[in-house]
Design goal:
The chain is mostly helical. The chain has two domains: 150 residues, no CATH class; 156 residues. Helix 4 crosses helix 10, helix 10 packs antiparallel against helix 11 and helix 12 packs across helix 13.
């Protein structure tokens, strides 16, 4: 009994060290990509009854085909979303800057002088500020370009590892030693926490994007109002909505700013709509995410604040999953 407990304690320490190193070594994209592919392959295999196939070779072939298809779809979806955001009705960066300058110019009378005086007054001044910023941060931008390449490689490797793990789980039968069994228990709990948070958040983001589309793409055009970047804002709402709470604040801010470019009353109407949607989102968070991990919104916000302070943006993204895993471990030991 004591030996089993020792193995479990060692597995907890190794799991905690691994989760720390994942953030410290910037491996979070690979982890997310791997777990996403793993769960999608497993879910698809179960739905297609691949796990019930009698032949081992048939299982291997089916899982390989499903894994290849899912990885291809995820990569194509990422490329398609990037292409949409760069070549949608916004017309690229130049058109966006000109439109933003127009919004700033038209908002002169509505904004306090201390705010307006700190902003670029036209497109030329904005381009000058941007050029100066690019010169000052050229070294950082080059580093970001290299890191983007590394991140893409990590994501692809993570996807392949996730597919290999799903294949191993479905075809391998083995008797695990005590320490391996204890460590497998930790990874299983973390994987389940990831599934609960991510799949629930995708549902919430999709619902939020749908209501945003109803407002920007249906209700406003019927009222004779056509806001610029409407389709882009819907996509941004979905993508940002994958980050609990904080993501919605970011997308909502963008919608209000674009609405402000139309009129102050339009911005007020958009803000009223977003506040109403937030009421629905709190219910959805409590119903979907809260029911999965039994966590309140303030708990997630606290975890995200602490993780962001410690690890930056990766910590902000990882916080809901890490917190859900921590709660599952504590509940498993009847501590909470």
């Amino acid at each position: 009994m004591n030996e089993t407990l020792t193995y479990r304690h060692a597995a907890w320490l190794l799991a905690a060290l691994s989760l720390f190193l994942i953030l410290k070594l910037h491996l979070l994209p690979a982890l997310i990509a791997g777990l996403l592919v793993y769960h999608l392959v497993h879910l698809t295999a179960v739905r297609l009854s691949i796990t019930r196939l009698s032949g081992r070779n048939a299982k291997i072939l089916s899982v390989v085909l499903v894994s290849t298809l899912i990885i291809t779809l995820l990569v194509a979806g990422g490329i398609g979303m990037r292409t949409f955001l760069h070549h949608s009705e916004s017309g690229g960066l130049a058109t966006f800057m000109e439109k933003l300058a127009e919004i700033l110019e038209s908002s002169r009378a509505a904004l306090p002088e201390w705010i307006y005086s700190a902003m670029p007054r036209d497109a030329e001044e904005m381009k000058l500020h941007l050029a100066n910023w690019l010169r000052e941060h050229s070294g950082e931008l080059q580093l970001m370009g290299k890191e983007a390449g590394h991140t893409l490689a990590h994501v692809l490797i993570g996807m392949i590892i996730g597919a290999m793990l799903s294949l191993h789980e479905m075809v391998a039968i083995e008797v695990r030693k005590p320490f391996v069994a204890a460590l497998t228990g930790r990874t299983t709990k973390f994987s389940a926490a990831f599934r609960d948070i991510v799949f629930a958040q995708v549902k919430i983001a999709a619902i939020n994007a749908f209501f945003t589309w109803l407002y920007l793409g249906v209700a406003l055009p019927l009222a004779g109002v056509k806001l610029p970047f409407a389709a882009t804002l819907v996509v941004v709402t979905f993508v940002a909505g994958l980050i609990p709470i904080i993501g919605n604040i970011m997308s909502n801010t963008a919608i209000v700013i674009v609405s402000f470019g139309y009129s102050f009353h339009m911005a007020a109407a958009s803000l009223l709509f977003l506040v109403s949607i937030h009421k629905l989102e709190y219910f959805l968070n409590a119903k979907i995410v809260g029911s999965q991990i039994k966590a309140k919104a303030w708990e997630l916000l606290t975890a995200m604040l602490v993780m962001e302070s410690a690890f930056g943006v990766p910590g902000l993204v990882a916080a809901p999953v890490y917190y859900a895993y921590l709660k599952s471990e504590l509940r498993g030991r009847s501590v909470i």
